[in-house]
Amino acid sequence: MKKLAFSILCLLLTTITFAQIKVAVAANLQPVIKALQQSFKDKTGIQIEPITGSSGNLATQIRNGAPFDVFLSADMGFPNALYKDGFAIKEPEVYALGSLIICSTKNTNLKHWETLLFTDSVKKIALANPTIAPYGKAAMEAMAKYNMAGKLKAKIVYGESIAQVNTYIVTGVVTLGFTTQSFIIDADQTKPFYWTIVDPKLYSPIKQGMVILKHAKDNNLKQAKKFYKYLLSSSAKAIFKKYGYHAD
To answer: Which member of 8, 167, 178, 200 lies 3.0 to 4.6 Å from 127 by CB, making a disulfide possible if both were Cys?
Structure first.
């Protein structure tokens, strides 16, 4: 009986370990991934382990052998490059479109943010590193449309990811910052936030793409495919919409 009990325990532990996948998650998804994680587990019993960071840094980690099964990027560029270079089993698909906002904890009218940035009241402006963070790239594009990026160079503070930008905003290290609409929904509501959506015409659409990585092929391919399919489902789309993404 002891041997039988031990065998059953080992089988259960193996099943639990097998039913977990590692997902590389772009930092802008930090708020929404919690809801997606719980919803997916409720439906399938499969646990995901999210590892967050800037899309560029996560892509570099994947190239260096990080054992991720699925990659949720904040753009299509990084997953496309990984697929072309043989790190993913199929071409990436768009799972959501992001929304860029400008935000502050200071009581500020941001309706005409393009002129506000030049005033003395704005000391520091945060945005994610545009070379590795798609939302930072979108912010640079928006400012470039007004020919202001170079003129504001002394005020700009770069974060390694959008999560770091959010920390700068919350702690008041910067006067305001460019971030995601999902940040407002998940942020500490004990603090007032003043924000406005940046006109989507000012930057390229933030098409957020996902891929199943080669690591999953020899480990958790079945579970990875289930999570991939779930992210395209109506249940996942409803969660994305709740957090300010477009997912039609």
So the answer is: 178
Residue 180 lies in a domain: yes
Contact 176, 44 (CB under 8 A): no
CA distance 79 to 68: 13
Residues 80/134, Cβ–Cβ less than 8 Å: no
**Domain residue limits at 73:** 2-97+207-242
Q: Give the CATH number, domain containing residue 68.
A: 3.40.190.10
Which tokens belong to 242? 């709740």
- Beta-carbon contacts of 68 under 8 Å, excluding residues fewer than 6 positions away, are 22, 23, 24, 51, 58, 61, 62, 213, 215
Q: pLDDT digits over 170-202, tens only?
A: 999 999 999 999 998 876 667 789 999 999 999
